[in-house]
Amino acid sequence: MKPIRFRPFRKFAFRSPGHPSWFRLSVALGIDGTSNTLLRFSVASLMEGAIMGGRRQRHGDMGPEPEKHMGSELDMLKQLEIQEVAPQFDSWLDSVIAHRAAHPELWKGLRAAEQSYLHGRRHWTRVACLGLAMLRDEGVHRPPQGTPKVEHSVLEHRFLLSAFFHDIGRLDEGRDTGHAARGERVFRFMAPALNVDPGDVESVAIAIRNHASYPAVLPGADLVAACVANADRLDRARLHERPLPDCLYPELPWEKWEEAAWEWGTRE
């Protein structure tokens, strides 16, 4: 009699705590943001152990997993996810779910994002972590003199909002040319519910609207829009594709994070 071997799901394996499958689980159980995050990491850890155990068994190796050496940049991105991005996205997601019935595009976008691996929450999370890392890098080119000064914490908040909403208007995985405009409309609808400062709305809306201009680099883009575009383009690693340097905004030090983005995107 052949031994029964564990075979993980191929399409919706519990690859990470932010996998779109958690959308359905958290909504169904009515779990709040904090508890939701803890549940995700606890169950995902158990599932990862089971999945890796099954893989070792199939390859005839029941010994310990080889130690993984991840670069310091990727470690930093993972810490940003756990400490800052995941809790904030959980909070915003709770609000979006509460208002989904009031806006048809929000309802459709949320359903599509929930089911999407390429453009769903894992993608939003990697974009957010990459962008925060670039914004906090010492190599960021500051706006020229004479332009309005914006506090760095405000820039980060605007960027996180843009990263969260940039693909929420997507309805399919293909060339959805209208998804950026839909995402902008959804954000403007949700801005009052999320207590977004009126002074932040236009910057976020423009960043969402223009993020899909790839491969073009639009002149006059502010730091938020450039950051969303660069992070989104670096995460083309999930497609096993690297963006051309000419398609990235030079205001942000993207070169430092390119290899970490590749490693993260191709692994998940």
Mean pLDDT: 75
Q: By helix and strand content, what is the structural category? A: mainly alpha
So what's the CATH class of the largest domain? Mainly Alpha
Indicate the CATH architecture of the largest domain. Orthogonal Bundle
Biggest sheet record: none
Uncertain stretches: 2-70
Number of helices, where a helix is a run of at least 4 consecutive DSSP H or I residues = 10
Order of helices and strands: HHHHHHHHHH
Note the overall shape.
globular
Overview of the molecule:
By secondary structure, this protein is mostly helical. The chain has two domains: 9-67; 71-267, Orthogonal Bundle (Hypothetical protein af1432), CATH 1.10.3210. The chain contains ten helices and no strands. It has helices at residues 21-29, 33-58, 72-99, 104-115, 121-135, 152-165, 179-190, 198-210, 223-234, 258-267. The protein is globular. The two termini are 35 Å apart.
In short:
With 268 residues, the protein is mainly alpha-helical. The protein is built from 10 helices and no strands. It has 2 domains: 9-67; 71-267, Hypothetical protein af1432 (Orthogonal Bundle).
Characteristics of this structure?
single chain, Hypothetical protein af1432, 2 domains, disordered N terminus, mainly alpha, 268 residues
What order do the helices and strands come in, and which of them pair?
Elements: H1 21-29, H2 33-58, H3 72-99, H4 104-115, H5 121-135, H6 152-165, H7 179-190, H8 198-210, H9 223-234, H10 258-267
